[in-house]
Design brief:
Blueprint lengths: L2 H35 L6 E4 L4 E6 L5 E7 L2 E6 L3 E5 L35 E4 L4 E4 L6 E2 L1
Antiparallel strand pairs: 1-2, 1-5, 2-3, 3-4, 6-7, 7-8
Length: 141
């Protein structure tokens, strides 16, 4: 094989992955712009910071108003909307959810046991604070 053909083939092999990844990024960017431009009031969205909210007003070109709690509406840049969350299916009222009651597991916490070896608290008359009988005898506040 000729060395003069090796260099162009090597260059070609290096640029093919770069070309393919740039196409993938461009496609993802176009999908994101299409999502952000298709926002309508009532859509549930998630922002880039992880906030889940409902779109209240999407009439502005660069911003969108999101309701993050009942009666709390904030204005966000459209680019901050990461994804549109599909509305959850409503729960049927006719069928109550099945509740399986299991016996409670025994508690792993131990009941406090009074230990006579623990230092007792003595009130210091001079400072009007409680002082324990431990070795250092520091006053407690």
């Amino acid at each position: 094989m000729d060395i003069s053909l090796l260099f162009p083939i090597l260059i070609l092999l290096l640029f093919i992955p770069i070309f393919l990844s740039s196409r993938k990024q461009k496609r993802a960017q176009q999908e994101m712009q299409a999502l952000q431009s298709s926002l309508e009031p009532g859509d549930i969205v998630s922002t880039t910071s992880g906030l889940r909210a409902t779109v209240v007003d999407a009439s502005y070109e660069d911003t969108v108003d999101l309701e993050i709690a009942d009666g709390v509406v904030t204005t966000w840049v459209r680019a901050a909307v990461r994804e549109k969350i599909a509305s959850e299916e409503p729960v049927h009222v006719d069928e109550p959810p099945a509740v399986v009651e299991e016996p409670a597991a025994p508690s792993l916490e131990k009941a406090p046991v009074e230990n006579p070896e623990q230092p007792s608290l003595v009130k210091d008359v001079e400072t009007d604070r409680e002082k324990d009988d431990s070795t250092n005898g520091t006053p407690r506040s």
